[in-house]
Amino acid sequence: xxxxxxxxxxxxxxxxxxxxxxxxxxxxxxxxxxxxxxxxxxxxxxxxxxxxxxxxxxxxxxxxxxxxxxxxxxxxxxxxxxxxxxxxxxxxxxxxxxxxxxxxxxxxxxxxxxxxxxxxxxxxxxxxxxxxxxxxxxxxxxxxxxxxxxxxxxxxxxxxxxxxxxxxxxxxxxxxxxxxxxxxxxxxxxxxxxxxxxxxxxxxxxxxxxxxxxxxxxxxxxxxxxxxxxxxxxxxxxxxxxxxxxxxxxxxxxxxxxxxxxxxxxxxxxxxxxxxxxxxxxxxxxxxxxxxxxxxxxxxxxxxxxxxxxxxxxxxxxxxxxxxxxxxxxxxxxxxxxxxxxxxxxxxxxxxxxxxxxxxxxxxxxxxxxxxxxxxxxxxxxxxxxxxxxxxxxxxxxxxxxxxxxxxxxxxxxxxxxxxxxxxxxxxxxxxxxxxxxxxxxxxxxxxxxxxxxxxxxxxxxxxxxxxxxx
Length: 471
Hints:
By secondary structure, the protein is α/β, with parallel strands linked by helices. The chain has one domain. It has helices spanning 34-43, 48-63, 101-109, 112-119, 138-142, 150-154, 160-166, 177-185, 418-426, 431-447, 452-466, and strands at 26-27, 86-87, 122-127, 130-136, 146-148, 189-194, 204-209, 216-217, 220-225, 230-238, 246-248, 251-256, 261-269, 274-277, 279-284, 289-296, 301-304, 307-310, 316-325, 330-339, 345-354, 359-368, 376-385, 391-400, 406-415. Strands 5, 6, 8, 9, 11, 12, 14, 15, 17, 18, 20, 22 and 24 form a 13-stranded mixed β-sheet that branches. The longest helix is centred in the C-terminal third of the chain and has 17 residues, at 431-447.
């Protein structure tokens, strides 16, 4: 593929970098045409309005130029050589034993069934373009909670009108070029509905695995949390390394009603040939709370800025995130907060770590509307560079249109102190162990916000990324 190859850092990612054969898979031809879009829609037996939306989005995609003045270069992404649909040709299973052996082996190596048994209320597992496994605890279903795929919801006469009402309204296809691409070829993802007043005692989780080479994954997540309800949703992502570009352009739309709470936790561990161009957005009502916990460890290039719209009075938002950029990685991440209600509050706390020439750029955008009386927002960004060839930048933007609002931004950039390393070495640590301990301590505010098993995964990822970091 011309321009599509990327150098892959020499890090032991054996837990994630195994691949499976695509023999017998259904794979659509590369590129983007109306025929491909119609084929995806026909395969899913979608209602006519969804096909019409796809075709409008495809026109929007072709009608917009690729942005060249924003963020890291994506010149290595050749969409004429990306397949937008790859399917393992297996039906969705509700019993783990019914999942094909090679796919089941993939998720077992990643610990998904074990996590489900121990700490999850429900799990959805996507492999390339399709959900291959979906299940939810019976007691959760009895509470009226709906956790299924959007495809299944579209075939349910109760939920199809709900999907029609919400789908593509928070992130419209006109939002940007890759949002249009997403709506043209989306496949897989989750539909979650939590009834009024229901609190889930355990999280729900979706895990996305992209196995195919030279392919894209375009899942759509739509979550509706009704008034007074409470949900924790976890999203995990991984892919094996190839020397050919892959693309992830998913979309996440979150609707949090009055008095409700949603925590959305993500651990992204894409391989370093991935272009991660994901869009996430939440709107919250009066007396509601939105919490983001985000860990970004993989991809060659990332554009990721989760957005929260505080539409009602007394709403609150917390964003806690960490990014880790190593060799060949240029991660452009951050968040956007729009405070429109009175007495709304937002807190942003992010960490970034750069090594081996990796580039981290943090962007924050805070918008305070005219009617957001007494709104308060604080943004704190801390960056740690492990050598003198890496880079870290902070780019804040503030648009405050109410004189009673209070908005603050704080950024610090530094390196690991030699004195700290020497002290830990004097206590018996090797230099590598000492540096890893410092980085783990730096990342602790994020890991402590995750459930135990996911905090362990994040710390293991840091350990893997720290290998070879000395020098």
